[in-house]
Amino acid sequence: MKRKFWNWIKNQDESGSEMRTFFLNGEISDETWYGDEVTPKLFKDELEGGTGPISVWINSPGGDVFAAAQIYNMLMDYPYNVTVKIDGLAASAASVIAMAGTTVEMSPVAMMMIHNPATIAIGDSEEMKKAVKMLDEVKESIMNAY
């Protein structure tokens, strides 16, 4: 069984209606070195596996900004209310996902960390210019979420 950085729990809201709660804990990535692949496609399959409003609890140091962007878009397109609750840390790419809530709540003891995107680049000056351009484009895209 593959490990995931999220976990869905089905429960009921105050009126007795089914409510799904999504716990996003850990790093966000498309794949890892440890065989515990995490893909936005798997997340999408589970998100679309139910209906109704959802609650998203976040405690994550972030990770892959492109995987986070896909999850952000899925949550933004979700046809029901999405309540985001930051209960620990929403850092880096996780802060982007946090912006997809219809309502965003943050514990007074939680933290959110936002920073400029970073990468590692190897090559000549043309490759460095491409890396700078890509980082500028990523920064623009995540600023749109905030």
Brief digest:
By secondary structure, the chain is of the alpha/beta class.
Could you please describe the fold and organization of this structure?
- The chain is an alpha/beta fold and 146 residues long.
- It folds into two domains: 110 residues, 2-enoyl-CoA Hydratase, Chain A, domain 1 (Alpha-Beta Complex); 30 residues.
- 33% of the residues lie in helices and 27% in strands.
- The chain contains four helices and six strands, in the order ββαβαβαββα.
- Strands 1, 2, 3, 4, 5 and 6 form a six-stranded mixed β-sheet that branches.
- Strand 4, helix 3 and strand 5 form a beta-alpha-beta unit.
- Helix 1 packs parallel to helix 2.
- The mean pLDDT is 87.
In angstroms, what is the radius of gyration? Answer: 16 Å
What's the CATH first level of the largest domain?
Alpha Beta
Number of self-contained structural domains = 2
Per CATH, what is the topology of the largest domain?
A: 2-enoyl-CoA Hydratase, Chain A, domain 1
CATH architecture of the largest domain: Alpha-Beta Complex
Proportion of beta-strand residues: 25-35%
Percent in helix: 25-40%
Average residue pLDDT: 87
Shape: elongated
Structural class label: alpha/beta
Number of strands: 6
CATH superfamily of the largest domain: 2-enoyl-CoA Hydratase, Chain A, domain 1
Distance between the termini: 35 Å
Number of helical segments with 4 or more residues: 4
Weakly predicted, low-confidence segments: none
Please outline the major beta sheet. Answer: 6 strands, mixed
